[in-house]
Amino acid sequence: MSAVTVVAGVYAACGILGMTLLGFRVSLHVSGKAPITAHTVGAILGLGFAGVFASIGLAQDPSILTMDKLAFVWHPMCMAAATTSLIPPAFDLVAIRHQPKARKIGEVLVMAHAALQWFSVFASAAGFVTIYSLKPEGKHFLSLHSWVGALALGLMLLNTLGGAAKSAMIGGLRWRDAIHRAAGSLAFSVMCGATATGMYNKVLVLPDGWGGALAQPNATWLEPGKTWLFTQLEPRMVYALLGLLALIKLLVLYPRPSPGISTSHAKGE
Fold first, then answer.
1. Which of 81, 179, 216, 238 has the most CB atoms at less than 10 Å from its CB?
2. Measured between alpha carbons, how far is 190 from 256 in angstroms, rounded to an integer?
3. Can you give the pTM of this predicted structure?
4. How far is CA 93 from CA 10, 28, 29, 257, in A?
5. Largest CA distance in the chain
6. Which H, E and C letters describe 194-224, residue by residue?
């Protein structure tokens, strides 16, 4: 099985899962079990954001699905899918599990949350493998974007593993943990930062490679351009997408109403 087949399969699975569970979330609103919240709006906008990247990537070269090797466009497509089409609905679904009419399906909501988080890890891994395989030896992790991205992937993986470990330790899915929640918010924030730096410009923090001196921040770091997205869209469209990304982040991290439960975990709630 080729790398292209694996990455394309992961990407397709992520798209199907994201759209299916977002549809499930909307059905909960229609059935009166959970209202539409800021998180839901963020998830809907996030799916549209990722869809823009998919349409650009496939329009640029539809043959990426049949190539013998990975094309660069898989990197932004997979990372956008992980950041905005999977993590936002994961936040939304787990946030409504304490709604009075949704408590009976609380474990289903937590499982959906976990599935979305794990698939965001898989999509990010596919995006990482793509870009790593395309860069020549000695050219890895030289940019600000790559550093922020590596931090985001590490935080997301650790928090996802932490959630799985806690569920295994307490023998159930119904628990609350302020650290897990804060770590998830931090990971998502850094993921958005990595997406934004990849969209906006190319800043080299190690211009002479590993072993060279760190670049000092200067005015050129604020200059836009020279990224894949700027080669595909007019600048004003790139700025609009950056604004949309910022809005999605604000909506997804919007404070959740307190469920009124004081215990750290409650398997029978």
1. 81
2. 20
3. 0.91
4. 22, 10, 12, 13
5. 60
6. HHHHHHHECCECCCCCCCCCCCCCCHHHHCC
